[in-house]
Specification:
CATH topology of one domain: Acetylcholine Binding Protein, Chain: A
Shape: elongated
Number of strands: 10
Structural class: mainly beta
CATH architecture of one domain: Distorted Sandwich
Radius of gyration: 25 Å
Largest sheet: 7 strands, mixed
Helix content: 10-25%
CATH class of one domain: Mainly Beta
Distance between the termini: 75 Å
């Protein structure tokens, strides 16, 4: 079978970030920061025979949990054009692991990736590429997060090497900057107010035992 070219586009609908605990069988220790994204993925290839096997659909290597949307029906789109090009789009919500360096927390900057690999076809069968380079990713420019802001992003093409061969891989890299103001309002300001409140006990008379007890509690 000749090598087939598969083009990919991603529409990021929404995203959240947080820290989740990995399963007991995971080789990583402790909690792993992860991000949950809702994406619409569109594939296009030039051989309709590839559609007969679901293994052509890329998988997400770092995915911890993911599911396809099925309300009211499965969110899938298939179009076959007269020139033989097949468009296959689907809507996915996935929680993806992202290893973070928290040395400079909360003024840190993290770089996370979203990787897509071919499951059943290696480089001798299929080649992945981004349809329009960085413009293949839509939605990051308007994305709003409480704890982070997206500084930049770019796409790249790579390959995954396994015992069974080399498989095509597409990677989306994006840099996240933590919003310091969020932690000032949520952590530092409340902690400072509690400390200041504890100083009130120094101005209360030693004979006012009930008042001092209430502040101590």
């Amino acid at each position: 079978m000749p090598v087939q070219l598969v083009a990919l586009m991603i529409l990021l609908l929404s995203s959240t970030l947080g820290t989740t605990r990995p399963p007991s069988s995971s080789v990583r220790g402790g909690g792993i920061p992860g991000w949950c994204s809702q994406v619409t993925r569109a594939l296009a290839w030039t051989d309709a025979s590839c559609r007969s096997s679901g293994s052509l659909t890329p998988f997400i290597p770092d995915s911890k949990r993911s599911f396809l949307h099925d309300v009211t029906v499965e969110n899938r789109l298939i179009r076959i054009f007269s020139n033989g090009t097949v468009l296959y789009a689907l809507r996915i919500t996935a929680t993806i692991a992202c290893n973070m360096d928290l040395t400079k927390y909360p003024m840190d900057r993290q770089v996370c990736t979203l990787q897509l690999e071919s499951w059943g076809y290696n480089l001798q069968d299929v080649v992945f590429y981004w349809t329009r380079g960085n413009d293949s990713v839509k939605g990051l420019d308007t994305l709003r997060l409480a704890q982070y802001s997206v500084e930049s992003y770019h796409t790249s093409v790579s390959e995954a090497v396994y015992e069974t061969g080399k498989y095509p891989k597409l990677v989306l890299h994006f840099a996240l900057r933590r919003n310091v103001l969020f932690f000032i309002l949520e952590t530092y300001v409340p902690s400072t107010l509690l400390v200041v409140l504890s100083w009130v006990s120094f101005w209360i008379s030693q004979s006012s035992v009930p008042a001092r007890t209430c502040i101590g509690q």
